[in-house]
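Q: Convert this sequence to structure tokens.
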Amino acid sequence: MKLRSIDRRLLTVLLIVFVNMLGSSLILPILPLYAQRQFQMSPQTIALLIASFFAAQFLAGPYLGKWSDRYGRIPILIISQVGTVISFVMLAYAPNTAWLFIARILDGITGGNIIVAQAYVTDVTPRERRTESLGYIFAVFGLGFMFGPALGGLLSAAYGIRLPFLLAALAALAVVIMTWRLLDETLTPEQRMEARKRRVSSLSPGAVLRNGPLLAILGIAFVGQFSLGMLQSTFALYGEAVLFQNYSEDATNIGIGLLLTVVGAAQFFTQTWLLRRLLRRYPETWLVILGSILRAVGGFIFAVITTPWLGPFGSLFFATGIGIMMPPLQSLATTTVDDQERGGVLGLYQSSINLSTIISTALGGYFFGINPTLPYSLGAVTSLLVVIPALGLVRWRKRTASTLDQPTG
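A:
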């Protein structure tokens, strides 16, 4: 996709997602260490702290997606981001562990900004370019990761561990202003009224259970997310215990941030160059399989290495696998329901991911307590297991002779 051919609205929402991701990733390498050093929290409790965000988002996600269908993308996007601003300030000035949990839960409840941004992208993008456009969201995720974690590590080393939380709050506030001033609503009043009047939803529990393709996609997302959840909850602790065990605290902060920067760089490259070319040659379902295998390779690398100099290879394979797998999976999910419920299905999809993250982050802390590398070997195995239902989805798509799996571009 050429830059000048991208819809202005898409460019605007990508800018908003980038600023949001930059702010969020500022705290990623330091939150577990902040909880451990300032509040003496155990690895298991830190894992629960991280899981609390995803638990709240799991409960709220489907509602935020549906509300964006019924009341518009912009109001929900603004409300959700205001909650993020408040939560980051609470983290910076938390007097005890209870405040940390309240802040993360608040951010999770109002954390529909990415879900709504993805729904906005599907609104302004034709079906044949939807996977590519969703890939651009993952690209700016990666771009935020290229700068955010390293910047967070450097700032915490130079000015104290609380400063990145305040800068993240400022970035979230900037997103609120940008959304209000720069974005136009994509849903007409008639579309929103029609969504509010719908009596029978294709996203009710019974309807989802009868929707074979959607059920398969949600299952793949759930299992495929498991390895990422264990990495998210333990990576900073793993870096300190394994890769940087003989380094100073400041060097550890910077090193972990740089490894996460590699994740961001790989994501950005995958979404802006690699995915587009793969889509021209391979069906979306096969890209889900390829991405799962690459994620497994990255997990196995982290499970066996003991030096930070090999860490970038694990980050590279893991991030590339995520970048290849997730946009096609999301795009396929939006084709399993009516267009009027795209926001709702993306919320349901995100809730499937969040449920997996809740379980995997909690178990990640438990497994880390047994052995710091155990979450990564188990994560690699679960990434391989997702290939089984993905192959089933490939066969189902072939049986239905769908055109959705034809290479795009």
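The chain has a mean pLDDT of 84.
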